[in-house]
Amino acid sequence: MSELSRRSLLGYSGTAAAGAVLASSGPAQATATEATETADAATVTFPSGTEFSGTALLPVDDYVGQISLSFSIGFSETPAANTVTPLEIANALNELTASRGWPAITFYGTPAPAPLT
């Protein structure tokens, strides 16, 4: 895709036009910004109970399907060996949706406005 990354296009448009552009483009390549965001996600610490959400578009013939997922995890005095991390949940959800043909979903956490995946 030209100078627009897939993430920036989806970030400001959820229309069928955005889906059409994505459908007509070649394979997406990570930009320096996306690589930086991914690296930043690995360094951000999200507090217990943080809400994570993400959306993906799926161009299908003459319309664009959309999936939105959200989750939160809260722990209280849990041993490290029993902790399930938000990244593990996000990756599991991405594996499930990918098995049904959806593109990878970038999950964002609040209150810390940073991407998880």
Summarize the structure.
This protein has helices at residues 6-12, 16-24, 32-43, 86-99, and strands at residues 51-60, 63-72, 108-110, 114-115. It has 117 residues and is of the alpha+beta class. The two termini are 21 Å apart.
Write the layout of secondary structure elements.
Layout: H1 6-12, H2 16-24, H3 32-43, E1 51-60, E2 63-72, H4 86-99, E3 108-110, E4 114-115
Antiparallel strand pairs: 1-2, 1-3, 3-4
**Please, how many helices?**
4
What is the rounded distance between the termini? 21 Å
Q: Please indicate the percent range of residues in DSSP E strands (runs of 2 or more).
A: 15-25%
Number of domains: 1
Please characterize this protein's 3D structure.
This protein has one domain. It is built from four helices and four strands. It is α+β, with helices and mostly antiparallel strands and 117 residues long.
Label this structure with key terms.
single chain; 4-stranded antiparallel sheet; 36% helix; alpha+beta
